[in-house]
Amino acid sequence: SSLKTTLTRRNSSSPPLSAAATQMFSTLDSAAEQMMVHRDFQAAFDTCHRGLESLAALDPEDSRCGELKAGFCILGIQALAELNQWRDVLCWVLQQYEQEQIPAKLMQMCILLYSKVGEPAGMQEAARVWLHCPLNSRAAGFGTVAELYLLHVLVPLGQKEEARELITGEVGSSAFTEEQRQTALDVVEEKERQTQDPPLNPRMSGSSDITEHPVSSQGTLIHKLEAMLRFIYRKFQMAGSGSFSLRKIFLAVVLLYMLLFRMDPALPSSFMWISKFLQLLKQMWTAMFAPYYQSVTQSKGL
């Protein structure tokens, strides 16, 4: 619906539509209805494919022709993804455009799609060529494509050198501000440190579940969490040792952290983390709440 609204607004200030263009917009509406309303993804893709073939009859200089083409491709990509035919997406898009001429919005969709299915390498070459095309550096979505390529392709694939070159080179100068470039370099360096950290338990098996939750990352989180909890505790002591409301806030912060972390206690890699975390909480609990309960007991003469 947002695509249809955008096209309608642009067309309101454009010359009257020809009969062929009107038919193309009707075809695009049909494809959107098949996709969103009827959930008939194959029919939606077939309609988009026919629409793209019929666009050859329109004047290629008409800006609406480019908008229609992009609209058909957007719906076609979504339909292929829903049909679990994502492997055909890039090839199909390249049948419609020269590699350097793919619209930025389509490049963004393709990068996100291939990253979502765990195959970022499928977009590496196409995105690299697109980003290094000088004409694309002036495209409205150039910065977003560069960011997605960095975060969803290069970093997951461990392409550290290319990532640094992208950030500090011509692409980075065109896509990012100085602050954004520094942030991007920090992300790359942090990822590199994580991959270089030795595991805490070399004997641990290399199962897929453990790979998704590396022990080295757990160890880093332990130290960060300890520092955070001790910092909060010191601040609460300075604010007033007898403030029970502050202690409740402290517990709320701890619980919130655990909810956001979403740790799976069934994983072997979590055992050490849980044990140390519980020890830390026990120490904090005794130090913070023992004086409170002692004062309550004394006031009641128990």
How far do the termini sit from each other? 70 Å
Q: Into how many domains do the coordinates divide?
A: 2
* Percentage of residues in helical conformation: over 70%
Low-confidence stretches: 6-10, 202-217, 254-274
Outline the biggest β-sheet.
none
What is the strand content? Answer: under 5%
| Rounded radius of gyration (Å) | 28 Å
Return the structural class: mainly alpha
Shape: elongated
DSSP summary, beta strand count: 0
- The mean pLDDT is 75
Count of discrete alpha- or pi-helical segments spanning 4 or more residues: 15
Can you offer a commentary on this structure?
Keywords: Membrane, Transmembrane, Transmembrane helix. One of its GO terms (molecular function) is ATPase binding. It comes from Amphilophus citrinellus (Midas cichlid). With 302 residues, the protein is mostly helical. The protein has two domains: 2-196; 208-299, no CATH class. It is 73% helix and 0% strand. The protein has 15 helices and no strands. The longest helix is centred in the C-terminal third of the chain and has 29 residues, at 271-299. The termini are far apart. 22% of the residues are buried.
